[in-house]
């Protein structure tokens, strides 16, 4: 069962962490053995959500209960680490899907795949608008999956064509022209733990959630 995020409840904390990286043996040029992580793993998310008023509190309580039954949710991932738009400025749209309008509106289309990307690839090649930029350390979404940019390099000396190295590897194949989403980050998750919402009196209530990427 898919459960919608309980808008307009407010996300006050959202910390994605890449876990479960397996290690493989590696020997350096001096013959010294090491173990290095392979590019796989899964995301966990520590999240705090606040609700104001009875309607939001009921919606948040229902969300926590529904998610406890192994339901899935396409979770909005807010972030203030913003890509640069086509004018070279911090993207100023409804970044991070902090509202239902922001999450439902068309994403910024300034970054697209130059060529098809295959499942398990650790990089993508993108075409970008002049002055737009995705930087080392930014997050992106392809489909309903989250990725971290761990490298960026120009292709053939063209500043508007860039190869991005990603962690984790791609979860699916994507055709050329697919929009690389920077302003409505999202991730498909299930809930591991969630604090119940206090049904007593009070204008503001909240819950702490731990969620894990699901496949």
What does this structure look like?
By secondary structure, the protein is mainly beta. The chain has 2 domains: 1-77 and 185-215, Elongation Factor Tu (Ef-tu), domain 3; 81-183, Elongation Factor Tu (Ef-tu), domain 3 (Beta Barrel). The protein is 9% helix and 41% strand. The chain contains 2 helices and 12 strands. Strands 1-4-12-11-5 form a 5-stranded antiparallel sheet. The longest helix has 15 residues, at 53-67. The protein is globular. Mean pLDDT is 85; it is low at 92-97.
Summarize the topology.
Blueprint: E1 10-19, E2 23-27, E3 33-37, E4 42-52, H1 53-67, E5 73-76, H2 100-104, E6 111-113, E7 123-128, E8 139-142, E9 145-155, E10 158-167, E11 186-194, E12 204-213
Quick recap:
The protein is mostly beta strands and about 220 residues long. It folds into two domains: about 1-75 and about 185-215, Elongation Factor Tu (Ef-tu), domain 3, CATH 2.40.30; about 80-185, Elongation Factor Tu (Ef-tu), domain 3 (Beta Barrel), CATH 2.40.30.290.
